[in-house]
Amino acid sequence: MGTKNDRDYKLPVEPVGSGGEVSTRSEIDAFLSTVRSMPRQAPTGRRGRLVFALDATASREPTWDRACHIQAEMFHQTAALGGLDVQLVFYRGYGECKASKWHSDPKALGKVMTGVRCLGGQTQIGKILKHAIKETRREKVGALVFVGDAFEEDIDAVCHAAGELGVLGVPVFTFHEGGDPIVARAFQQIASLTRGAYCPFDLSSADRLKELLAAVAVYAAGGRQALLSYGKGRGEAVRLLTSQVGG
Predict the structure, then answer these.
(1) CB-hemisphere CA count at 13 Å for 206?
(2) Alpha carbon of 233 to those of 151, 193, 236, 243: distances in Å?
(3) Which of 15, 25, 128, 150 has its CA 20 to 30 A from that of 135?
(4) 215 with 231: CB under 8 angstroms?
(5) 97 pairs with which residues across the strands?
(6) What pTM, to 2 d.p., does this model score?
(7) What does the pLDDT look like over 104-133, one tens digit per residue?
(8) Which parts of the chain are beta strand (E)?
(9) Percent helix, strand, coil in the chain (nearest 5)?
(10) For the segment 38-82, what is each residue's pLDDT rounded down to a tens digit?
(11) How far apart are CA 85 and CA 76, in angstroms?
């Protein structure tokens, strides 16, 4: 359970639950190929909803600011689809895992993110997955994006939660910063169990991550057809994704 020191950094958030490798072409291809096989989403007539979850432990401090800028692209690319509501979820410190309210404005979400300080602690991915389960039972969540660099939990328990989320039809897109093979395997299993996708990245591939995050947001807001339309005239990674969807 999160700590009760919100006044220290004045965040509108609530507690939730109790040097790496560069992405290679083959890894990006695998990510996009997995997205191709995802189930179609029926139009709902509602705004898309996406949970944007981040590891805010000390090891991620060097790239936190970059994540703050990248998130804005998710909103910009979904405006024509009726918009996107994004909820920030992050963990850090000793058992602290918190969720913001749902935001429809990238500036508002960015303000929340810039108010977060990274603190040392262990991963709490299981809490994030359980939170997403709870949220989608209230109102459908289109997708969950998770960005992190470590995994320090019981893999069986986390995979069980991932399986529950998969049954509810919420794909998890795991973005892995760093090259630890054990972490990679855990993130891959989470993505697989939810029919999502896994992709490694580092700072040198931040632009590609930005494109892929925007594409995932488009999927969450409008389904595969919206993703196909979005890919026209985009970068290589997104063009490859949309050509596979169209095929």
Answers:
(1) 13
(2) 36, 32, 9, 12
(3) 150
(4) yes
(5) 91
(6) 0.77
(7) 887 788 888 888 888 999 999 999 999 999
(8) 13-15, 48-55, 84-92, 96-103, 143-148, 172-177, 197-201
(9) 50, 20, 30
(10) 544 444 456 789 999 999 999 888 777 776 666 666 666 565 556
(11) 12
